[in-house]
Amino acid sequence: MTGKKQTLVWLAASIWLLFASASGAATYRDLDQQQLWYLELDTGRVVIELNDTFAPKTVAQIKQLTRAGIYDGVSFYRVIDGFVAQAGPGDTPLSDSAIKRLGQTSIPTLPMESVLPWSNARAFTPVQRQDLFAPQTAFSAGFAVGLNATSSEAWLLHCPGAVGIARGNEPDSATSDFYVVIGQAPRYLDGIMTVFGRVVWGMDKVQAILRADPQGSGVMAPDEPQTRIQRAVLGSDLPPEQQLMLAVERTVGEAFEQKLAARKLRDHPFFFKRPPAVLDACQVPIAVQLGT
Amino acid sequence: MTGKKQTLVWLAASIWLLFASASGAATYRDLDQQQLWYLELDTGRVVIELNDTFAPKTVAQIKQLTRAGIYDGVSFYRVIDGFVAQAGPGDTPLSDSAIKRLGQTSIPTLPMESVLPWSNARAFTPVQRQDLFAPQTAFSAGFAVGLNATSSEAWLLHCPGAVGIARGNEPDSATSDFYVVIGQAPRYLDGIMTVFGRVVWGMDKVQAILRADPQGSGVMAPDEPQTRIQRAVLGSDLPPEQQLMLAVERTVGEAFEQKLAARKLRDHPFFFKRPPAVLDACQVPIAVQLGT
Asked: Does the keyword Signal apply (chains A, B) (predicted)?
């Protein structure tokens, strides 16, 4: 029995190694509380890293709306398992106090920030050429990105945990509502929606968000139970004792390159037959550490 | 305000269309209760369609172990967000009553059933040539499959919701424990693990399964709270009033071909810039209807 138990524990540890190869050697960078968006959901705490390299205007507006309390008490009103969970004030008119805090009577529309001119001088680590949806995938500061054939343009990928801003048919129509990818990456949205962040803590709390009836449109009926955002706040606006000291795996440098290489090579005995030596950038876990 | 509300509802409906294009025209097939595996979790009811075309011996053993009560009361003991949730008796010795019900003192190991000799005479619908991980992807009776270059072999894909049987390093070492894919498809496991089913109902209840500490190995410590399988049962062993009358979208025929084509084409005005005309077979939702 002990033998069997050891085998199973070892098996579990071994499969974990396949999943997070070489993560023991990873190095980490501390996250800046000014770039962390804390969402206190009914299901628990979620922390999103904002990306103002790729989406500076969107991030600035998210911060402004957060400080005006626009997201406090709103619900995830469109939740489709395997796709996205979307939340925001929707069509609710701004309250007098929100107008006062915001300094304007309505929320301005945002320009599309889906594709960034790219310079090879930027630090990034290549993942895969001829990915199904992009000529090249890579990691840049923890985010999975796509690059065009000449690496002159880059965009954030719609991997699970990616956070984007909702819009209408017009490219520059986004205002406040946002979505989190909760299923297989909807990569067809890459480059045509503004991704502005990614979940770095509490993805399990995102996955616990109540779904709409799977036989409906995905938008919840008023009488369907919905998961609320009790409070949204920037890390730098929290008292220090309420901040999470998060550090994420560095996605530049030798340790990370080795991790990617090991995930392509799959030379563990578990692989009695080697899989194709390719990597889906959305299936590379980026480790997170919680400090004290 | 009404105008804005209408716009938002329309927007939501419109994005849904992008997700489930042409599903209005879908046709359905009723599922056979003999092929449905009901798991009553602490989080709610999950129904898995078993696939005995691809994994006949594994399915037969899962049914036998289920009828012997092997899965009743066991926990999801290895749950890694974005990867898999794994459950089963693990190293627990069989009880006297289980031995009696099972008619044997231990659980036999299973042969690998990961790759099936394939005949083009089988009904399947192609999805994508030169997929990152497979020469060809397709759907066969609701399941996403990979095909080799000559279509002489096929295997079930590790898409979200796929259910496979755990094993050690030896290919033919699986016994009882199983995993459900809960994140971006770990396609590097295709063809080297036996997938024997897929979740057709209650994937939200699977996503609500408690995760292990993200900073650990993924295997839960004894004192970590775990989600239990209260009871596992085959649909055909349930009284009719407890069965769910499930029907799934047919994945052969003109309606489904049109759906795939529309998802590649993306000609809705929302797509001000067309994405690449490719499809990730794991990102094609297969509709399910609940009858009465």
From this structure: yes
Looking at beta carbons, which residues of chain A come within 8 Å of B169? 11, 14, 269-270, 272
Q: Which residues of B6-44 are buried (b: 16+ CB within 10 A; e: fewer)?
A: eebeebbebbbbbbbbbbeebeeeebebebbbbbbbbbe
Mean pLDDT of successive 10-residue stretches along chain A, which has 292 residues: 39 46 73 98 98 97 97 97 96 89 93 90 89 97 96 96 97 97 98 98 98 92 95 98 97 96 95 97 96 83
A30 burial via Cβ count (<10 Å: 0-12, 13-18, 19+): exposed
Query: What pLDDT, on a 0 to 100 scale, did the predictor assign at position A215?
Result: 86
Residue B223 in domain:
yes
Judge contact between B89 and B76, C-beta under 8 A.
no
**Scanning the structure block, which residue is given the tokens 């194709």?**
A276
Write down the pLDDT at residue A16.
46
CATH value at residue A81:
2.40.100.10
Q: Which residues of A touch B260 (CB under 8 A)?
A: none
Q: Quote the CA–CA distance of A61 and B123 in Å, as a whole number.
A: 51
Per the structure, the complete domain to which residue B270 belongs is given by 21-291
Task: Report the residue of B159, B181, B217 to disrupt the A interface, i.e. the one with the largest count of A CBs within 10 Å.
Answer: B217
DSSP state of A174: B
Instruction: Please provide the size of chain B in residues.
Output: 292
A-chain CB neighbours of B12 within 8 Å are 78, 86, 217-219
**Residue length of chain A:** 292
Contact criterion met (CB < 8 Å) for A13 and B219? yes
In this prediction the ipTM stands at 0.93
B21 CB-near residues (< 8 Å, 6+ apart): B259, B262, B263, B268
Contact B208 A208 (CB under 8 A): yes
Q: Tell if the CB–CB gap between A272 and B169 is shorter than 8 Å.
A: yes
Judge whether A219 lies within some domain. yes
In a domain, B265, yes or no: yes
* pLDDT tens figures, B40-51: 999 999 999 999
Instruction: Write the CA distances from B252 to A181, B249, B285, integer angstroms.
Output: 29, 9, 14
The single residue listed with the structure tokens 């929707």 is A90
The answer to whether the Cβ–Cβ distance between B185 and A184 falls below 8 Å is yes
| B16 within a domain of the structure (yes/no) | no
Q: What percent of chain B is predicted at pLDDT more than 70?
A: 91
Backbone angles phi, psi at A29, to 5 degrees: -125, 140
CB contact under 8 A, B204 and A219: no
pLDDT of residue A120: 66
Arithmetic mean of pLDDT, B2-27: 49
Number of domains in chain A: 1
Separation between Cα atoms, residue B212 and residue B196, nearest integer Å: 25
Integer angstrom CA distances of residue B130 from A136, A184, B133:
16, 19, 8
The pLDDT assigned to B24 comes to 54
Q: What share of chain B is helix, strand, coil (3-state, %, to 5)?
A: 25, 30, 50
Cα–Cα distance for residue pair B185/B160, rounded to 1 Å: 6
Nearest-Cα residue of chain B relative to residue A86 = B12
